[in-house]
Amino acid sequence: MWVRPWVSGLVIAIAAGVVMAEGTTTTEGVKAPRYPDHSKLMVWVDASGKAHPVKTPADWAKRRADILAGMREVMGPLPPPSRKVPLDVRVEGIFEAPKFTRKKISFATERDCRVPAYLFLPKGARGKAPAILCPHPTSDIGKGRPAGLGGPYSRHYALHLAERGYVTLAPDYVRFAEYKWDPYAHGYVSATMKGIWDHMRAVDLLCSLPQVDAERIATIGHSLGGHNSMFVAVFDPRIKAIVSSCGFNAFRRYMKGDLTGWSHQGYMPKIPSYGGWRGMPFDFHEVVAALAPRPFFVNAPLKDANFEVRGVTEAFEAARPVYRLLGAPDAIKVVHPDCGHDFPDDVREQVYAWLDRELNHSKR
């Protein structure tokens, strides 16, 4: 199995960070440590509130644990492994194309919850193929958008990558398309955390497939799918590369600091309780850094009205010292096409070629 030279150590480090993060509180009601400036990432705070410089990967693991704790404070607890049930994959339809088989499926993520999805299996693969999780953008047809069943061609990335020889999986996000399930009635604090859990179970599904090389799994998404790809990758070290198109910026740059768009029932309803972006327990500088040292490609258009480009640049520049510390200074890449909230053809081609390289995949 092919793995980047630093990925094996990365998985251990990230897994340790997750364990540490889950161990920072025995009850999720305890607040995460506060950092007055989320862009200052080369510092960690001990239990007494004293700040220490981040000088080593072990120091960074402490800060990363605090980042995950901050995310869980806003999003709610990550469900424990005991919440898992057998995936019980059900095939509800099959479509044959020259280069792939597309299956309409559903799979169980927890008790009384089934997630609808499209699974693409490439034809003619030699050995096990890399796989891509493809969270969808905001769309009434949900999973159908990346699957190529409607909407702009630029959003059909699950279809495009299947034609390129990848196994791809495009699940519905909770409350979209066919996925009518109320996370709040089942104890979730946010739809965001339910999405993280479902997407982690989607990775479980990919890992279970005999066609998939479980050491070569990535995620790609646009807009809603862009930040959902980031969120799941923070919590799941099995994801080895991440692509986010028009998916984020620093909270203070989002709609001039108005976080209303992040705080409705489709995302994180606790956000208003923090009194604005200054009081948030986490920010996207930290989310980007928590992905390190894995390869991360961002499409951040110059005219994106949702995610103002300066906020992307600020997050990247803050996270770069972490990537350097972890030995991957060139693992993050950002491009700025001269367009609005879009995933243009030339950028997608760059992304697909980048994924081929990062996952050691030969285009068919």
Structure, explained:
This protein has a 9-stranded mixed sheet, sandwiched between helices. It has a two-stranded antiparallel sheet with strand order 1-2. Helix 1 (7-23) packs across helix 2 (57-75), helix 4 crosses helix 5 and helix 6 (284-290) runs parallel beside helix 7 (309-325). The chain has helices at residues 7-23, 57-75, 157-163, 191-208, 224-235, 284-290, 309-325, 345-358; strands at residues 43-45, 51-53, 90-96, 100-110, 113-122, 129-133, 167-171, 212-222, 239-245, 296-299, 332-335. Helix content is 30%, strand content 19%.
Calculate the mean pLDDT score and round it: 92
| Sheet of most strands | 9 strands, mixed
Radius of gyration of CA atoms, rounded to a whole number: 19 Å
With helices defined by DSSP (H or I, 4 residues minimum), what is the helix count?
8
Give the spatial strand order of the biggest sheet.
3-4-5-7-6-8-9-10-11
What is the strand content? 15-25%
Layout of helices and strands, plus pairs?
Layout: H1 7-23, E1 43-45, E2 51-53, H2 57-75, E3 90-96, E4 100-110, E5 113-122, E6 129-133, H3 157-163, E7 167-171, H4 191-208, E8 212-222, H5 224-235, E9 239-245, H6 284-290, E10 296-299, H7 309-325, E11 332-335, H8 345-358
Parallel strand pairs: 6-7, 6-8, 8-9, 9-10, 10-11
Antiparallel strand pairs: 1-2, 3-4, 4-5, 5-7
Helix pairs in contact: 1-2, 4-5, 6-7
Summarize the structure.
By secondary structure, the chain is of the alpha/beta class. It has helices at residues 7-23, 57-75, 157-163, 191-208, 224-235, 284-290, 309-325, 345-358, and strands at 43-45, 51-53, 90-96, 100-110, 113-122, 129-133, 167-171, 212-222, 239-245, 296-299, 332-335.
